[in-house]
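Journal club prep, notes for RB
We'll compare a predicted complex against what the paper describes. Inputs for the NAP case:
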Amino acid sequence: MNVVMTGGTSGLGRFAAQRIAAVPDTRLLLGARNPGAGPAGTLPLDLARLASVRQFAQKVEASLAGRAIDVLALNAGTQFGNLGNRTEDGFETAFAVNHLAHYLLLRLLLPRLAEGAAVVITTSDTHDPRVNPLAPRHLDPERLAHPAPGRSGFRDGFRAYAASKLCNLLTARALARSADAAQHQWRVIAYNPGFTPGTSLNQDWPSWARPVIAISAALRPVLRLATPEQAGGALADLATGRVVPPPHRVYASLVRRRLTWPDPSDLARRDDVMHDLWQQSARMVGLPEAP
Ligand SMILES: NC(=O)c1ccc[n+]([C@@H]2O[C@H](COP(=O)([O-])OP(=O)(O)OC[C@H]3O[C@@H](n4cnc5c(N)ncnc54)[C@H](OP(=O)(O)O)[C@@H]3O)[C@@H](O)[C@H]2O)c1
C-alpha cells in the first residue's frame, strides 16, 4: 500500500502515521517542513509555499516510480491568534496552509490515485455554527485569501481557521461528487478529530486563552475528549479502510471517542458554495477548473 500524507510529524497525525506505517507492505511518503526529523520516506514540504507543494508532488511521483497512490491523507493544519500572517504567495497563512496548498496537492496527485484509493482530508467541527459560534455563515474565498487590512485579534484568527476547515470539508465533498471519484471508486472522507488537547495546534493562542487547553486536558476523561493517539488512530482506521464510511457519507466526526457520520453544517452542504470554492481555488493556484 502506497500512502502519501501531510501533517504526520506531530500531534494526532504522528500517531496516525505510525499506525499506518505498521500495516504490512506499506510505503509511507510523508511531507514535512523538517524532513530530517521524520521517518524514512519523509520528503520536504512547506505548505505555506505553493512552489514547495509542486516540488513535493514531483518528488512523490519520482518516489512512486509508476506505482499508484492507495491512500492520500491530507492532515496538516495550522492556527493563528490573529489574521496577520501571509505566505510568500501573498495569501493569509491559515487559508493557504490548511486549504489552498492541500487543494493544489490533491489536484496534482489526482492522476496518480489508484482504483479504490482513499482520500482523507482532516477538517474540524469548528466549521459548524452548531458547535462554534465563530463558524462562518457565508463563504467568500477571495476575502479569506486576502483579508481586509486592519487590526485583528484572536477571534479573527479563530474564524479564519474555522473557515479554512469548512474549505477542507467542501473540497472533500466536491471530490466525492466528481465523475473521477465515481469512475475510480475513490473513498473520500472529511475527518473531524474533535477538540483534542495535547497537540501543537494551539501554540499560537494568546496567554489568556491557554488555560482553556490545560483545563480541557485535565477534564479529558470526564468530557470523553480523545487523546492525540485516539484521534490519530481513528484517522489511520479511515485511511487504511479498517473503518469504511456508510453509503453516501463523507463527514466522519469523532465524538466522545466514537466515530459518527453526522451531516456537516448547512453551508458545508451547499453545492453552489462547494462549486464556487473549487473554481476560485483553481484560479488562485493557477490550474484549470475541471479536475
Ligand atoms: N487538535 C485539535 O483539537 C483538532 C481539532 C479538530 C481538527 N484538528 C485538525 O487536525 C489536524 C492535525 O492537527 P493537530 O492538532 O495534530 O496539530 P499539530 O500538532 O500542530 O500538527 C500539525 C501538523 O501539521 C504540520 N504543518 C503545519 N504547518 C505546516 C506547513 N506549513 N507545512 C507542512 N506541514 C505543516 C505540522 O508539521 P510540523 O511538525 O513541522 O509542525 C504537524 O505535523 C489539523 O488539520 C487540525 O486542523 C485538530
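Talking point for the session: The chain has one domain: 2-285.
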